[in-house]
Specification:
Blueprint (H helix, E strand, L loop, with lengths): L7 E8 L7 E7 L6 E12 L2 H8 L9 E2 L3 E9 L11 E4 L29 H5 L3 E3 L2 E2 L1 E2 L9 E5 L3 E3 L6 H4 L5 H13 L6 E5 L3 H12 L4 E5 L6 H6 L4 E3 L8 H8 L6 E4 L4 H9 L7 E4 L13 H4 L3 E4 L7 H13 L12 E3 L3 H9 L7 E3 L5
Parallel strand pairs: 4-9, 12-13, 12-15, 13-14, 15-16, 16-17, 18-19
Antiparallel strand pairs: 1-2, 1-4, 2-7, 3-5, 3-10, 3-19, 5-6, 6-11, 7-8
Helix pairs in contact: 4-5, 7-8
């Protein structure tokens, strides 16, 4: 492309300060360096994930500002840096916050989807030095190495998944985080069994994807739990057999679910990032064999539970990106969508322009969303 090797000036939503509105700025995106790829996100799409809101408005680590958020996107390769062999300009891709180098001991192991090259939220001075995005003479942190709230971004070759060019990028962008995280929590991490009972706590995009994963695994009963009843109909569309609002009950929600299921569910999923709900989800499981999976992100508090909950046979585990290896899992999920084996369209509740990003943030804060999708083409 004509811009290869040049600095690109484009629009991005910049977070200059903690818990402040994002500002649409002109930024400079440097050419890709060794083993890097520059991706054109403009005229395609990026999702707005709960993790973006967490780090913008809740996380106490304020050393990460200024930053460009966004990590759930799809786009087209604009140019490649030296040493890149897997991609060519024009390839359709999804950037990954969970890299897959395919060479390290973790990538070679079938037991994990981690990669030794992954950062998983670690932020330090080197994070700014590595950034290819700058504004007003300052380097901007590339959130999770991606920064899709920009019309162009630069990512490592190991952090990009090539996908079928037939995929509608304005929809499959959501596979880059929420859908894989929730769906994989059920099918990969918990390994939900046919005929089993499940409870999903939190019906944002991750929770709804977990509901969908439980149905794909042929669970016979799927209890969807949320304090916002407006989410219940969508949960039923995706596979929920029961819906429960904890505010409708005077007893703890784990007691309600235990009574509903004569002792607890086989599998439970915490998809919020709330340590109290993590314990509730664990205690909703059946003694002897119940498995509870933590899929919601938080690093503000520690979680705890009485040891007897585990001593009686329950298992408590967690998941990042639903256990999917980045490159392989994303391509697999996009193919499942194209084969009509995976629902994606149902997750998109709003279509907004990049300059409406603060509206998307407010939708998240108010819980009136699944995953607002920002069209990154700017309109007059």
């Amino acid at each position: 492309m004509a811009t290869a090797g040049q600095v690109i000036r484009c629009k991005a939503a910049v977070a200059w300060e903690f818990n402040q509105p994002l500002v649409i700025e002109e930024v400079e995106v440097a050419p890709p360096q060794e083993k890097e790829i520059r991706i054109k996100v403009r005229i395609v799409a990026t999702g707005v994930c709960q993790s973006d809101l967490y780090f913008l408005c809740k996380c106490l680590n304020q050393t990460m500002f200024p930053a460009v958020f966004g990590h759930e996107a799809a786009g087209v390769v604009e140019s490649i840096g030296p040493g890149v062999t897997e991609f060519q300009p024009g390839d359709t891709v999804i950037p990954l916050f969970m890299p897959q180098c395919r060479e390290c001991r973790l990538c070679k192991s079938p037991k994990t989807n981690l990669c030794v090259n992954g950062s998983a939220g670690r932020i330090d001075e080197r994070s700014f030095e590595r950034s290819r995005i700058s504004c007003r003479g300052r380097k901007l942190l590339q959130f999770l190495g991606t920064s899709s709230f920009s019309e162009f971004t630069v990512v490592k070759e190991i952090s990009v998944a090539k996908i079928d060019p037939a995929a509608p990028l304005h929809k499959v962008c959501l596979i880059g985080c929420a859908i894989c995280t929730g769906y994989g929590a059920a099918v990969n991490t918990a390994k939900v069994e046919a005929g089993s009972s499940c409870a999903v706590f939190g019906l944002g995009a991750v929770g709804l994807a977990a509901v969908m994963g439980c149905r794909a695994a042929a669970a016979s009963r799927i209890i969807a739990v949320d304090i916002n009843p407006e989410k219940f109909e969508k949960a039923k569309v995706l596979g929920a057999t029961d819906v429960v609002n904890p505010n409708d009950h005077s007893r703890p929600i784990q007691q309600v679910i235990q009574e509903m299921t004569s002792g607890g569910v086989d599998f439970s999923f915490e998809c919020i990032g709330n340590v109290e709900v993590m314990r509730s989800a664990l205690e909703s499981c059946a003694a002897g064999w119940g498995v509870s999976v933590i899929a919601g992100w938080t690093d503000m508090q520690n979680f705890s539970a009485p040891p007897i909950q585990l001593m009686t046979g329950r298992k408590w585990t967690g998941t990042l990106f639903g256990g999917f290896k980045g490159k392989d899992g994303v391509a697999q999920m996009v193919r499942a969508y194209l084969d009509r084996k995976l629902m994606v369209d149902e997750f998109i509740t709003h279509n907004l322009r990049l300059d409406q990003v603060n509206e998307a943030v407010e939708l998240m804060k108010n819980g009136r969303w699944c995953d607002p999708k920002l069209r990154c083409s700017l309109h007059d």
